[in-house]
Amino acid sequence: MLAEELSRKMDLPLICLDQYYWKPGWVRTSREEWRKKVAELVKKDKWVMDGNYQSTFDIRIPASDAIILLDINRFICFWRIWKRRLLNNRIDKLDDCCENVDFGLMKWVLWDYPRVGKKEILEFLKEYNNKKIVIIKSKKDFKNIEKLSA
Fold it and tell me: How many domains is the chain partitioned into structurally?
């Protein structure tokens, strides 16, 4: 996982947002509670944060020094989700949340995110051109992460 590698290389604590969002059995945290949690998390001095959760961009991005957007081919993303499910190798194991791939997730990864979610993120990031923003589209783009430590 990229966030884990960055955390290790930069010697910063890793915050995996899924750990804070999902309750046992894939129960969602309420919007109000979620925003409060994220507001507390970004108060930490330094961190690497993993997760999309567009509903909290307005909290996280202003508190960030840099943003990495993974813009990987949707089919590669879906394959990696399946692989994680098959190998049961999720780094941030969630309490009582069996990794599963259902129609909703498949639709989000293959259809909704590429058509809507990504556009919303890119539009939102335009407001933060003062931040270091790295967009990774392929493995060769990982070399651009070196910009973050500059």
Answer: 1
Residues in a beta bridge with 118:
none
For residue 75, the enclosing domain spans 2-149
Q: Which residues contact 55 (CB under 8 A, 6 or more apart)?
A: 31, 34, 35
Q: What residue has token string 């590669």?
A: 76
Q: pLDDT tens digits, residue range 85-132?
A: 766 655 666 667 666 777 888 888 889 888 898 999 999 999 998 999
Whole-structure pTM value = 0.82
CB distance 128 to 61 below 8 Å: yes
How far apart, in whole angstroms, are the C-alpha atoms of residue 24 and residue 7? 26
- CA 69 → CA 76, 87, 111, 122, 141, distances in Å? 15, 25, 18, 9, 11
CATH code, 103: 3.40.50.300
User: Based on the number of CB atoms within 10 Å of its own CB, is 3 exposed (0-12), middle (13-18) or buried (19 or more)?
Assistant: buried
Residue 16's identity, in one-letter code, is C
Residue whose entry in the numeric block shows the structure tokens 């996280």:
60
pLDDT tens digits, one per residue of 22-67: 898 888 999 999 999 999 999 999 999 999 899 999 999 999 999 9
With H, G, I as helix, E, B as strand and everything else as coil, classify residue 46: coil
